[in-house]
């Protein structure tokens, strides 16, 4: 692959703004497992090998089993996820695939399981990882 733009060097203020959003996500009340499920599932959908590699490694460090990591992309057919995790994964999929919109059913299911603050944090975490995926894919970042 030909060399591509390095955003932190060319637009450091914009990159720092995205880093600040990531720092905010790190400071939220979202559980570490919820954060990693969001990051892995969105990265799978977007095909971001760099982020999948990073966040599956982070998930292992948190103690998420290999089986749960491997089955994230097929979570509907696996009995390894809580109702809360299923709601997060469904919301992650619909926000990531936003051209199909977020259905009332998926949104209301999440809204019934989480208070407004936690739901807002989930949505912001989904939006943030989608931004990182787009940056990594567009600039040619590679999993190593």
Automatic annotation (TrEMBL):
<protein>
    <submittedName>
        <fullName>Alkylhydroperoxidase AhpD family core domain-containing protein</fullName>
    </submittedName>
</protein>
<keyword id="KW-0575">Peroxidase</keyword>
<dbReference type="InterPro" id="IPR003779">
    <property type="entry name" value="CMD-like"/>
</dbReference>
<dbReference type="Pfam" id="PF02627">
    <property type="entry name" value="CMD"/>
</dbReference>
<dbReference type="GO" id="GO:0051920">
    <property type="term" value="F:peroxiredoxin activity"/>
</dbReference>
<dbReference type="InterPro" id="IPR004675">
    <property type="entry name" value="AhpD_core"/>
</dbReference>
<dbReference type="InterPro" id="IPR029032">
    <property type="entry name" value="AhpD-like"/>
</dbReference>
<keyword id="KW-0560">Oxidoreductase</keyword>
<feature type="domain" description="Carboxymuconolactone decarboxylase-like">
    <location>
        <begin position="12"/>
        <end position="93"/>
    </location>
</feature>
């Amino acid at each position: 692959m030909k060399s591509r733009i390095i955003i932190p060097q060319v637009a450091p203020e914009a990159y720092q703004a995205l880093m600040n959003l990531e720092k905010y996500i790190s400071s939220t009340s979202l559980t570490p497992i919820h954060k990693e499920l969001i990051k892995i599932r969105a990265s799978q959908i977007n095909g971001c090998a760099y982020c999948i590699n990073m966040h599956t490694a982070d998930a292992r460090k948190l103690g998420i089993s290999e089986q749960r990591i491997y089955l994230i992309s097929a979570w509907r057919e696996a009995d390894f996820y809580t109702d809360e995790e299923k709601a997060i994964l469904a919301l992650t999929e619909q926000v990531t695939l936003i051209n199909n919109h977020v259905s009332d059913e998926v949104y209301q299911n999440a809204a019934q399981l989480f208070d407004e603050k936690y739901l807002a944090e989930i949505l912001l975490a989904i939006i943030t990882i989608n931004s990182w995926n787009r940056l990594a894919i567009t600039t040619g970042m590679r999993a190593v």
